[in-house]
UniProtKB/TrEMBL annotation:
Species of origin: Emticicia aquatica
ATP-binding in keyword set: no
Name of the protein in question: Carboxypeptidase
Keywords for this protein: Carboxypeptidase, Glycoprotein, Hydrolase, Protease, Signal
Pfam families xref list: Peptidase_S10 (PF00450)
InterPro entries: AB_hydrolase_fold (IPR029058), Peptidase_S10 (IPR001563)
Superkingdom classification of source: Bacteria
Signal peptide region: 1-17
Amino acid sequence: MKKLFFPLAFMSVFAFSQNQTRTPQIPSTPPIIKDEKPALTIPFNPDSFIVTEHITTIKGQKVPFQATTGTMPVWDEEGKAIAGLFYTYYERTDIKDKASRPLVISFNGGPGSASVWMHIAYTGPHLLNIDDEGYPVQPYGIKENPYSILDVADIVFVNPVNTGFSRPTSKDVPTSKFFGVNADIKYLADWIGTFVTRSNRWASPKYLIGESYGTNRVSGLALQLQTAQWMYFNGVILVSPTTLGIERGAASGAALKLPYFAATAWYHKMLSPDLQNKDLTEMLPEVENFTINELLPAISRGGFLEESKRKEIAAKMSRYSGLSEKVILQNNLDIPLDFFWKELLRDKGYTVGRLDSRYRGIDKKDAGEKPDFNSELTSWLHSFTPAINIYVRNELNYKTDLKYYMFGPVSPWDRTGDNTGENLRAAMAQNPYLHVMVQSGYFDGACDYFNAKYNMWQMDPSGKLKDRMSWKGYRSGHMMYLRREDLATGNEDIRQFIKQSLPKQGQPAKY
C-alpha cells in the first residue's frame, strides 16, 4: 500500500495554474519578441512524503515496517522554509507503545556526504548487493538485511542540505546558514525538533549515530538539542570518528598513526614472522604501548633526540610499520599518511586505500609520494550509486528527476569553532542518562582506531564519565560494516548498546 502526500502550498500552485479566466492585458508598447525557449527547471518540493509498507526478516524474526520517504522543511527564524531535507523514516508497525520504542537518528559525514552509506549497508532494513568483503558485484541491487537494528529501534536517515535529494528552497538563501561546523549543528537541531514533533516521538528514548564527519555533527547535536530544543538523548554512537575538534600537537599527531600502520602492514603480511604469526588484536597492544611510552616522548624531543636513540626508535617503527628504517629516518620519524599508502606495497606495484587499507590500487607509475586515487572509494561508488537510485525510486517509490548527491557541493565549509568533542562531554555531564559508544575499523587510515581511543582519553580528563563510554574495534576499514562478519557484529553491538543504555523503569536521571 502506498500513500502520497502533498502539502496545501503545492496544491494551491496547481490550482492557480488551472485558472483560464484571466483577461489578457494589452501592452502600451509592442513587446520585444525573443526567439528562445524558457529554461526548464526540475521542481523541488521541500515538504512532501510517500509511505510504503514492507516486511523483512531480522535474526530469523518477521518484522513488518513502514517506510516514510520525502522532504521536510528547514525553517528560519521568521518561519520561512529555507531548505528541504530528504529523509527516510523506518517505523516498525507491530509495536503499539511508541513511548518506550527507541528512535535512532542517523547521519553520515563528508561534510557533503549523503546518508546512503549506513542506510543501505549497515543499520537499515535493506542492503546493497556486494560480496562478503564489501567489493562490488553485478547485477546491482538490494536485498534484505538480516542484521538491521529495526527489530529494536525505529530509524530515520537524514540528508543535510545538498546531499541526497536535499536542497535549499532558493539560490538566494545564504550558504552560511548550512555550510559550517556550527551552522550545520544549529539548523539540523531545529529540523530534528520538527521531525520529532511531527512523528510524535517526544516520549521515545532517542539515539544519535554519525559516521566520519557525522561524528562531529552528532557530538555537537547532543548538546545543541539539550540546550536549544530541550531534547535529551540516551545514547550517541560514533562510527569511525574524526578528532572531534580535540587538538593534536605535532608530536602526538605524528606518533598516533603508528598502530594503524601496524594493522595495515599485518593485513598485507609485511611484518616480521614473530609479529605476523600473532593475531591482529594480540599484536596491536605491543604497538600501542610503544607508541605512548616511547615514540611520543621521542618525537617530542625533535632534533635534540640523541642519534643512537633516534636509530633505535626508527628500527622499532620499521618493525611495526613494514617500512624501511631509511625511509623512516628520512621523514624524521613522522610518516605522512599519503606516503604510507604509496610506500607500503610500492615494490609489489600496488597502493593501499585511505579509508580502507585492505583495498589495493594501481598507479600510473610506482614512483611518487602519494597514490593517484583512493582505491576503496572508487569501489564503493561503483556499488552504492546504482543501488541507492534503484532502491529509492523502485522500492520506496520516491520519484524525482533530481540528482542524488552521493557527495554534494558544500564548499567552502567553515571549520572554525569546532568544539564538538567538548560539546559531547558537556552533554554527558549534564545528562546522566547519556551514553557513548565508539566503533572503529582497524584498517581505516582516514579516522584511525587509535586516534578514536585517544579522543576518549582526552575528552574526559577527569575519568568521571568513562563508565558511560565504550570502544569497539572491527577487522575492516572506515565503513567496517561492508565486511559481512563486521556487519553482523557491529549491528549486534549497537543493539546491545541500546538495550543497556535504557534506564530501568523508575530509574531517575541523577548522580
